[in-house]
Amino acid sequence: xxxxxxxxxxxxxxxxQALGALGTARExxxxxxxxxxxxxxxxxxxxxxxxxxxxxxxxxxYEDLWLGHRHGxxxxxxxxxxxxxxxxxxxxxxxxxxxxxxxxxxxAYMSAVRARTQEVIAERGVGDGLLCExxxxxxxxxxxxxxxxxxxxxxxxxxxxxRAGAALAADDPPAGWLAVPAGAFAMGAGADxxxxxxxxxxxxxxxxxxxxxxxxVSNQSWMSFSEGGGYERREWWSREGWAWKEEHDITHHxxxxxxxxEAPVCHVSWFEADAFARAHDTRLPTEAEWEKAAxxxxxxxxxxxxxxxxxxxxxxxxxxxxxxxxxxxYREYSQVFFEQAYRVLRGGSWASDPRVATLTFRNWDLPxxxxxxxxxxxxxxx
Length: 382
Hints:
Blueprint: H1 4-8, H2 13-32, H3 38-42, H4 52-71, H5 103-124, H6 130-152, H7 158-164, E1 177-180, E2 183-187, E3 203-207, E4 210-213, H8 219-230, H9 239-248, H10 254-258, H11 270-279, H12 287-295, E5 312-318, E6 343-346, E7 363-365, E8 374-375, E9 379-381
Parallel strand pairs: 5-8
Antiparallel strand pairs: 1-4, 2-3, 4-9, 5-6, 6-7
Helix pairs in contact: 2-6, 4-5, 4-6
């Protein structure tokens, strides 16, 4: 139902667009969990993931912080919930142990926050639009995180599971290598429009010539690696990767054997991706190589790389800031993760919204993680 402010005054175009984007994201979030019962929403399905109901309330708390409080200059709607639904104050390991909002209350909180957001935008506009866009994309990103949890718990709707395991399109470029010549390119997002702080500033990067696989690694290729001793040959693994594999008795993810042979392999950790590349006398692309290859074409009318957007693709790069990096609008989004163990992933997955997963977007995770919808694209020297 429209609020009085929305009913009584026409909204500027940018405000309508912002509210439309917020509304679309919310519809998709609620539809994703519509068939789940309260127990499924509240259960801890994995120790490294949040209960789904925590994600729902977190989405609301984030929106209220940035649009109601920071942009609208209102007091927080539920100040007692601020720390509970702050990702740093309440890490994933404890989210299933705390007294949090139940599903009905979480949905009510989402609705109440959205009503305030509508009022704020009707009264104050969207400003430069960046905070509204950040909130939209935050919800879209959490929808992918929730899909990760649902995949672990085998709760994905059938139509979503089919998207996860679909083969590449028949008209995608064939297997083989794309040769990328030496030279400089402009890496990162430009100054205009929305981008996350870690995508900027755009800067020149000089690269030697390299080759990158036109297609991501398939389930069939991964199973050949696994059955050919891939998880037994010590020489293919880094020291850290081998220790992780041995400690947790790691072999290929069950989804690989169950999946279509020609579909991109998914649920692969960086350690495994690195070992696979070594076993094939190749390597993972750096993120600069990945971005140059994804944005450079010999034939502008035809894509050069197949499968971008099907699975996140691990790169060999550590997650660090670009030269001249400045945190915006808060350092906890990116800066606190720099120069640690996190590795960069590029390209997006079947569960990513294209609004988020642009060609300059940088995802990151720990090298042992494989709950994400991540696969592999190989690179080599020329």
